Amino acid sequence: MKNTKHIYYFLLYLPYLLSWALKSSSHTSYLIAWLGSFFIFFVCYKGIIKQLPNDIPILEQLLRPIFFLQVIFAGYMACTSIFYYANTLGYEYFSYVGNRSFLSDDIYESIAKCQRYYVLGHAALTHGLIAGMDYPQKKVYRIYAPSVSNLLLGISIICLPLGYLFSKIGALNQFSIELSGLSFVSGAIALAFAIRENKRVNLWASAGLFALNLLSALSSGFKEPIIICVLLVGIFLLPVYGKKVAPVLISVLIVLFFVLPTFIGNFRRMVSEGVDTTTARNESLDKIIQSDNLIDDLQEDNWAFLTGRLSEIDMFIRYTKSTPYFVPFYKSKTVTDAIKTILPRFFWPGKPDVEQLVMTRVYTAGVVDRQSIVSAKPAFIVDCYLSYGAIGIWIGLFLYGYIAQRISLLAEEMFGSYFMGTAVMFAGLFQIMWRGNSFEFLFNSIFWSLVTMFIFQKVFKARGILYKV
């Protein structure tokens, strides 16, 4: 793509600059920064800076980073704070109920400050994504697969037990996460292709696999795997059924967003009390189904989810209050520690516990108490801030977007197409990049996902599935 209008990159940073210029008015500054993310989406998707990829129709390339990763990552990071902000104003949904808890005098100033960091991070992320785009690519390899659903089903069925087996072997444990993620994505896409190809046997097999993945997701204690399961099927049915699928997909997602907070809350509470995951899952479902005040319970739990667990701005505010005023910037220490975690424990028996390493930053900032059993790992943008402040956010998020885009391009080059490269391999092996994570977990996962991707290319070439053009 040679049509980049470099001067227009400035447009991405306009919301941050404007909100910073008006920081004396906290509410105005916050709203400009929050709305600024939607402006960035508009500038990006209108192709003002660089034309969007046109080698395939838009609906058939939604899993490319410029679309799916940006919407999920930036949407979660920068757009969800509106519920927290509304809650501090005394609103619950659209009703004014007053503030039920004590608020510090500078709460709105703190919210606006963090939102400015969010919109700066979103601008840098989009800058990196656009700068990294280089379509169309020269075809080096081509996939030979008479039936796409057969191939996907095979990948999913093989990777599922391998992932479980590797999780029990210390030296191979690292690959279990990558294989499980690939099995999960391949299984979901296999179901969509079985429907598209109208293959009854594949349909039943992939539906069974999809059901197992859903049950596993329900027992994980996290909402994301469940939502992603549904999203992936919907994304691959959209090009075939178009407008017929969209209302159904949107309706299912709304129901999931409304019901899952209550389910996950009940599930985690029972597990923390010592109940096994299967029993906790079943009883959590029963409580929702048999509740006499279902709507009221769901509304209350969902608002707590929207204002607390969906948006992480409350934790970000605590980090910005402690660093750099009481805790100095970590500078390159966090990155150095993250690079060290890449080495497997098999080769480094004295390797520190990664969870404890990450949580040290949390405890030092006073975000959670050391006696708490809660895991509150810093988000990627928080680690960027803790390293070098605003400049750390710009550098970190730009590199994040650029690297994600280049990995997607590499996957498409290695596997001959958007479909097998980005939709299957990138989505299956690099899911962690959709939402991000603290440096240590992210660096480790990206490195071993790259290793796994190269191994799969070797296997595909050896099996005659992949050949040079």
Structure commentary:
With 469 residues, the protein is mostly helical. It has one domain (6-468). It contains 20 helices and four strands. It has helices spanning 10-21, 26-45, 68-79, 81-88, 107-132, 148-167, 173-197, 200-218, 224-241, 245-272, 277-290, 294-310, 313-322, 333-340, 354-365, 380-388, 390-415, 418-429, 432-435, 439-462, and strands spanning 91-92, 95-96, 141-143, 466-468. The strands form two sheets. It has a two-stranded antiparallel sheet with strand order 1-2. Helix 6 (148-167) runs antiparallel to helix 7 (173-197) and helix 7 packs parallel to helix 9. The longest helix is centred in the middle third of the chain and has 28 residues, at 245-272. The protein is globular.
Strand elements, count: 4
Going by helix content, strand content and strand pairing, the class is: mainly alpha
Outline: globular
Amount of beta strand: under 5%
Distance between the termini: 22 Å
Short description:
With 469 residues, the chain is mainly alpha-helical. It has 20 helices and four strands.
List the helices and strands and how they pair.
Blueprint: H1 10-21, H2 26-45, H3 68-79, H4 81-88, E1 91-92, E2 95-96, H5 107-132, E3 141-143, H6 148-167, H7 173-197, H8 200-218, H9 224-241, H10 245-272, H11 277-290, H12 294-310, H13 313-322, H14 333-340, H15 354-365, H16 380-388, H17 390-415, H18 418-429, H19 432-435, H20 439-462, E4 466-468
